[in-house]
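Backbone-to-sequence.
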């Protein structure tokens, strides 16, 4: 039995015709391609997409998706192949990482600037995101460098946080299509909660900084949000919302997102570390979060 599938090519520039022809081999029965583009930025669309709908034989395509993805990625084109409910409709649930995904910065590095430990913390963060260090242990080490900072530092950092271009549009598009949105972060609820309220996010999970006598203790309270917690929250929120896992999308950039990306119907590596790009179902390799909407069948 053949299965419906939707193939999307994504690029900051117009997608070359030769690339479309090559990708078309994955879905040889696809109809005429649909051309989409992002919002106008500086007189030109922020991104371009080509979307094709067809069927995959039960035995799979005669062309390797992995090989095509690698080939086209080298040409600067991202490729996503959606199956099941995501091939024919929008996601019922979209779950995103926060630092370097929903927002442009790593919050712990902004906090560390106030402690004079930014360089050390940035190095550990980079290694953790590449999957070289255990995330929970690395978080404890990094948060320990913040001990003694006044509690109001979190407010100052919150003012410096900027949404990734297209973030607001992506959340609005999912909601307009009847879906729900969750944020699950290895960062801190003190920053994430106000962002979630501003965007109308439906589900939120993040770490909480411990405070005593108005100062950070250098510890967090409660369960550390690591890779396993992220995947668990995706499953729990999907169940609570009555959404099959096959109709969910997860988006993240670091190694601590890999379990969540694998659990979702479509896992998207967003401006991600190489290990994440290699293992995710799809990539968005340029910093426009609304481009994820093209992969999700929105717009």
């Amino acid at each position: 039995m053949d299965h419906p599938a939707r193939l999307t090519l994504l690029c900051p520039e117009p997608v070359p015709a030769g690339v479309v022809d090559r990708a078309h081999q994955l879905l040889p029965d696809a109809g005429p391609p649909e051309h989409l583009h992002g919002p106008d930025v500086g007189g030109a669309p922020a991104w371009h997409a080509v979307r094709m709908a067809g069927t995959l034989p039960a035995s799979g395509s005669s062309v390797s998706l992995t090989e095509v993805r690698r080939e086209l990625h080298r040409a600067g084109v991202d490729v996503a192949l959606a199956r099941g409910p995501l091939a024919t409709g929008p996601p019922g649930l979209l779950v995103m990482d926060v630092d370097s995904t929903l927002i442009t910065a790593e919050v712990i590095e902004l906090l560390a600037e106030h402690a004079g430990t930014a360089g050390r913390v940035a190095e550990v963060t980079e290694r953790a995101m590449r999957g070289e260090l255990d995330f929970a242990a690395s978080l404890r080490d990094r948060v320990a460098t913040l001990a003694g900072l006044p509690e109001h530092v979190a407010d100052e950092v919150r003012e410096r946080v900027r949404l990734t271009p297209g973030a607001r549009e992506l959340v609005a598009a999912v909601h307009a299509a009847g879906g729900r949105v969750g944020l699950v972060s290895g960062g801190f609820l003190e920053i994430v909660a106000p962002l979630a309220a501003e965007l109308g996010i439906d589900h939120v999970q993040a770490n909480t900084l411990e405070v005593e006598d108005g100062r950070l203790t250098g510890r967090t309270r409660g369960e550390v949000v690591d890779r396993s917690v992220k995947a668990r929250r995706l499953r729990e929120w999907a169940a609570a919302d009555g959404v099959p896992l096959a109709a969910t999308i997860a988006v993240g950039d670091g190694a601590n997102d890999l379990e969540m990306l694998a659990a979702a119907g479509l896992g998207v590596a967003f401006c991600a570390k190489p290990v994440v790009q290699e293992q995710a179902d799809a990539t968005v390799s340029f910093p426009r979060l609304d481009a994820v909407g093209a992969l999700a069948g929105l717009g």
